[in-house]
């Protein structure tokens, strides 16, 4: 059931990722093909299966559908399922699912448009603080420290290094800090930086990207945040075990 909920949520996140950067409502009009504008039926909106059944093309105008749509649905489904394995049906699972959905939406928009909307990160940060205040997070003081720690560090990097962190990355980091607290937020940043460095190096070696060309950091922050939330303590214990 958690996997199915994740797939359905991923389908909605595809709408958010497409419409929010274009300043369109995410609720209306109903889902439609962006090319021919034909309203999509239920058979067109079944996560993953509709894409396979339609062979990756619009049923009405045969325009190719990006493979990113089913991939994002699958990723969201996996995150919801992994959170269920970790927390079961609990309030903590709901928090993890909401946090994961916010991160995936931020990552998807940053990957395609090189922006991270304030409409996601600022309400997400407030939500993380509120959840912490009512007992569904690291605690309100720890949550505030998380906002200051990761958001502040990314702000410092953006100021010190030319072409460093953008405003969207900084606010996304602050949102992550609200959910994770300072300790796990730093774990998320380390994971994001390592993965980003490896991917960046591979792209340079394959001549897919110039050394001076920037790379969207939001997707790496999202990966780091999800890993830190679900496996942060295990990762820290593993690392400390290497040196002890």
What are the salient characteristics of this protein?
2 domains; globular; 244 residues; 0% strand; single chain; mainly alpha; 8 helices
Notes on the structure:
The chain is built from 8 helices and no strands. With 244 residues, the chain is mainly α. The chain folds into 2 domains: 1-89, no CATH class; 117-244, no CATH class. The model has no long low-confidence stretch (mean pLDDT 90).
Number of helices: 8
* Mean of residue pLDDT values: 90
Q: What structural class do helix, strand and pairing data support?
A: mainly alpha
Assembly category: single chain
Report the count of strand segments.
0
Q: Low-confidence spans: pLDDT under 50, at least 5 residues?
A: none
Percent of residues in beta strands? under 5%
Helix content: 55-70%
What profile does the largest beta sheet have? Answer: none
**Structural Rg:** 19 Å
What coarse outline follows from CA principal-axis ratios? globular
Summed up, the domain count is 2
Q: Write the H/E string, N to C.
A: HHHHHHHH
Euclidean distance between termini CA atoms: 41 Å
Short account of what is shown:
The protein has 244 residues and is mostly helical. The chain has helices spanning 2-19, 49-53, 68-87, 91-113, 118-133, 140-160, 167-205, 218-243. It has two domains: 1-89, no CATH class; 117-244, no CATH class.
Could you outline the blueprint of secondary structure elements for this entry?
Layout: H1 2-19, H2 49-53, H3 68-87, H4 91-113, H5 118-133, H6 140-160, H7 167-205, H8 218-243
